Amino acid sequence: MEDIFEYDGKSLLHIRKWSDMAPALQVGFTSRNGGVSKAQFESNNFGLHVSDKYEDVLTNRLNLASSLHIPVENWIAAEQVHQGAVHVVDKEDAGKGSTSLDTALKGIDGLITNEKGLLCTAFFADCVPIFFFDSKTGYVGIAHAGWKGTVARIAEVMTSKLVDLGVDLKSLFVAVGPCISKDNYEVDSYVKERIPVEFQDKVLTPVGNEHYLLDLKQLNVEILVQSGVFRNNIDVSKYCTFRDEYLFFSHRRDNGNTGRMLGYIGYSK
C-alpha cells in the first residue's frame, strides 16, 4: 500500500517525503513492532500511563532516541487532555514528559518548535496524529486529535499559531497520520451534535439507532482547509489503527487494554 507514511519493515513509519526536503528532519510514527514490552503491550509500547513496566517503556524510548540521534533528554511530551491548546516549545522545555508523566506539559495537546535538537512527541492508539512542517521557516509541530480535540479545532489552532510565527501557508505541509478509520469508528448522537453542521454530510454515515460512522481523518482535513491550508499540501494516511492489527495498538479494538504508538517530529541537528 502506497502511503505518506512508509513502513521500514521493522518498527517505524517515516514521512520520507518531508525528510527528503530537510535531511535533518526526523518525522514518523512508531508501530507496535520492534520493542521489548510484553503481553498486551507487545512489543513497542511508548505509553507510560498504561500499566506497562516502566523499564520496558523507557528501553523502547531509549532505543528510538538512539536511532533518531535525538537523546530522550531532548524529547518533549504534552499531557494530552483532548482539548485544543498548543504550546511553542524551546530548549527550556527539553525533557518534559520524556521519562515521567508528571513533567509533561499540562493542559496541552499540540507542540510546535523550530529549534534544532528537540523532538516533539505525542502518544496514540486510535486518535488522530496531525504533523506539520513548514519548508521555509523550518517550523514543525504535532497535534493529538481525538474526536474532542478535533471538534475543539486543534488543527486550526496549530495552523493559526504557525501563521502567527511567520509561516506562509503556501509552504506549510500537513500529514494526517494513522488512526482509526471511518469503517471502524461508530459514534452516537452526542458526538454527532458536536460536529460542525457544515461538515456532517461529509464525515458522518448513519448506521441506525442514532449511531453514525465518523471519518475523523476527513473532518480534520475539512478543518485544515477551512483554516487556510492548501488541500494539495495535505497528505492523509490510509492506515487504520483498528484494522491493521499487525502494525498498531488500538484502544477500541483492544478494549482499552493496550499500548501506545509514538508520533514524533524534530530536527536531529
UniProtKB/TrEMBL annotation:
Cofactor: Zn(2+)
Species classification: Bacteria, Bacillati, Bacillota, Bacilli, Bacillales
Function, in words: Purine nucleoside enzyme that catalyzes the phosphorolysis of adenosine and inosine nucleosides, yielding D-ribose 1-phosphate and the respective free bases, adenine and hypoxanthine. Also catalyzes the phosphorolysis of S-methyl-5'-thioadenosine into adenine and S-methyl-5-thio-alpha-D-ribose 1-phosphate. Also has adenosine deaminase activity.
Sorted UniProt keywords: Hydrolase, Metal-binding, Transferase, Zinc
Protein name: Purine nucleoside phosphorylase
Gene Ontology molecular function, alphabetical: copper ion binding; hydrolase activity; S-methyl-5-thioadenosine phosphorylase activity
Gene source species: Ornithinibacillus bavariensis
Reaction(s) catalysed (UniProt annotation): S-methyl-5'-thioadenosine + phosphate = 5-(methylsulfanyl)-alpha-D-ribose 1-phosphate + adenine; inosine + phosphate = alpha-D-ribose 1-phosphate + hypoxanthine; adenosine + H2O + H(+) = inosine + NH4(+); adenosine + phosphate = alpha-D-ribose 1-phosphate + adenine
UniProt similarity note: Belongs to the purine nucleoside phosphorylase YfiH/LACC1 family.
CDD domains from the UniProt entry: YfiH
